[in-house]
Please model this.
Amino acid sequence: MRIGDLAEKSGLSTDTLRYYEKIGLLPKPLRDAGGRRVYDETILRWIDFLARLKSTGMGISKRQRYAELRTKGAASLKARRIMLEEHRQKVSDDIAALTGMLTVLDEKIDLYKRMEAGETVDPAFENCARTEHGARSGLKGRTDDKRTGAGSRADPET
Amino acid sequence: MRIGDLAEKSGLSTDTLRYYEKIGLLPKPLRDAGGRRVYDETILRWIDFLARLKSTGMGISKRQRYAELRTKGAASLKARRIMLEEHRQKVSDDIAALTGMLTVLDEKIDLYKRMEAGETVDPAFENCARTEHGARSGLKGRTDDKRTGAGSRADPET
DNA sequence: TCTTGACCTGGAGCGCGCTCCAACCTGTAA
DNA sequence: TTACAGGTTGGAGCGCGCTCCAGGTCAAGA
Model:
C-alpha cells in the first residue's frame, strides 16, 4: 500500500501523512526499491485512534508523547494507561460542559421563538438569570458581582 | 468600569478584550475624558455567552456573524435563532462523539490494566474489533476494507 | 523511447486566536 | 513634581495543524 492509497483509506491527505511522520505521530514506514513509502494495512487502526484523540481535544504535543510511548511497546503500558485516564477525565468534563450549553441553547431558542411571535418577554429573567447560576464556562465569576439591576435592556444576549 | 477591571471579571486579558473589539465581537465602549474605555457591567453577560459559544466549538467568523446580528436588535432575532439551532445540532453531535470516545477509552484502559497485570490478552479482539464497528470518527471507512488477519501484533493501539 | 502520474524532499505560507511589544498618554498619591 | 500604575495605538510574533509549492525521481503503459 502506497501513500496515495493510505490517504484515500484514512481520509488524511498525503501531505498530512508525511507531516505526521515527520513529527513522530506515525512510525517511519518501509520503502520500496524506488524509495516510496509502503504501508501495512494495520497502520489504519493507529491513524483511526489518533484521529479520535485529536477530535476529542488532545493536542499535537500529547499525541506525540503518546506515539512516542507506543514505540516503546509493553514497557510503556502504564504510562499510556495514565495518559488515557487523564484524557478520559477531560472528555468527561467536556461532555458536561456541552450538555450544559445544550440547555442554555434550548432556553435561548425557545425565548427567541416567543419573542419572534411578538410575546413580551423580559429576557433578563428567562435567560440571563440562568447564565448567572448555571455553569460559568471558565469565566472567573466573582461571588460578590453586583450586576446592575435586571432587565432594562430588551436584548437576550446581554 | 475600565478595561483592567473587565479583564479581571471576565477572565479575558486586556489584550484579548481590545482584540475582540477590533474584530467586532464586542461593541465599541464609551470613553472617559482621557480616552480610556469605560464598560457597563452588562457587557459581562455577552462576554460570558461568547465564551460559551467559543468553548463549545463556534469559531471566530461565526461569532463575528452572530455579534453583527446582535447589533441589529430585534430585526435579527430569527437569523440569530437559526444560528443557535445550527450550533445546537453541532453541540449535540459533539456530545455523541465524545460519549463514543468515552466507551473506547474505558475499554482500552481496562485492557491495559489487564495487560499490566500480566494477563495474556489478544488486543485485536478486545479493542480493534470495536474500533472497527464503532463510530469511525470522521475517517472515510470503506465497507470493502480487507484488513489483514486479526491479531498477530501485541500492541493495542494498532 | 516517451509520456504520464504518483511519489520524493525541503521549506514557505496560512488561518485561527490570541499575545506581546514599543512608544506614548493620563490621573492619582507622596 | 515626580513617580508610577494603568491606560492608548499600531503592528509584529507565535503555536497549532496543516497545506501548498518547486524541483526533482521513478515506473508503468502507449
